[in-house]
Amino acid sequence: MRIAIHHKPGTFSDEWLRFCKLNEIDVKIVNCYDSDIVNQLSDCDGLMWHWSQTDTRAVLFAKQLVYSLESKGLSVFPDSNTSWHFDDKVGQKYLLEATGSPLVPAYVFYDKRQAKEWVKQSSFPKVFKLRGGASSVNVKIVRNKSMASWLIRKSFGRGFSPVHKINRLEDKFRKFRRSHDIKDLVMFLKGIIRLLSPSYDDRMLPREKGYVYFQDFIPDNTFDIRLVVIGKRAFRLKRLVRENDFRASGSGNFTFLKEGLPLEYLRIAFTLAGKLKLQSGAFDFITSNGKIMLLEVSYGFISDVYKTSSGFWDSDLNWHEERFVPEWFIMEDFIAGIKQKRII
């Protein structure tokens, strides 16, 4: 068996490579941005590439490459089922509605007039989102029809930058204020520099326009539950909302405590991961009048925070009190999938 890995420090590939070294698995380091990447994979059983929504080069072609390699018979992580709707709230709306998932009601319009007519008949507040963006960037509460109308005009006019620099800087400062860590201070200072001198990726991202997306606002939630499902394992964070805010994603304020988590969250997450055929799924849940509701799903997640967790659940909802490395779960399943293909 030979596995190709696109290595970028600070991504899942760090632990994938460590796993392969410890288990003496043959690895070929490749560069997915090379024009001859398909050729580079001719002697491999599969490709693993942890690409990000902030990588403008990957956004241009990663999903197309994944599908093309699958048509060739290669195993890929993330595969097309796992990645086609990544960082695409509009795509997720249709997918989750079609599969009967408990999605918080969402509304998308591609016509300015239709959107304005909907506003006249709707109650507020609502939540406005761009189709992409992590850690609750590009997410804002819409308190009245006037603000909704302004957002619609902008959506079908100049549009929005996909990078909300002020929100991003506020998150970095909030993280430093909690940790007082020199690394977080450096990240905050770099964020200030980015306000004046945008990165290459920030400059290359196109403006978001030509559509408008709203979700119902679910009040009185002081936290959300992020459940990550990888195969037959699940682990979670309880993420507290930001101070004087309604958003929990990106707050950096969380707990791992397993007590108090209704098993229904796990049942829903495992069921959805199976129905959607996800290799990895990070589900964000809130509640409304006691009903569990889903905000969105992503194949990626910040793995480092889970390495201090005390354990995980299996698909039979049994708790395993042991430390784990999330990327190793992904690698174990990937290798098992390749072996299964060989048997078939």
- Number of DSSP E strands: 15
Strand content: 15-25%
- Rounded mean pLDDT is 88
Structural class of the secondary elements?
alpha+beta
Give helix % range: 25-40%
Contiguous helical run count: 12
Radius of gyration: 21 Å
For this entry, what is the oligomeric state of its chains?
single chain
Helix and strand pattern: EHEHEHEHHEHEEHHHHEEEEHEEEEH
Gap between N and C termini: 16 Å
Largest sheet, in brief, is: 7 strands, antiparallel
Which spans have pLDDT < 50 for at least 5 consecutive residues?
none
- The best one-word shape is globular
Describe this structure in words.
Helix 1 (13-22) crosses helix 12 (326-343) and helix 8 packs antiparallel against helix 9 (182-196). The chain has twelve helices and 15 strands. The chain is an alpha+beta fold and 344 residues long. It is globular, with a radius of gyration of 21 Å. Strand 9 (223-230) and strand 10 (233-240) form a beta hairpin. It is 38% helix and 21% strand.
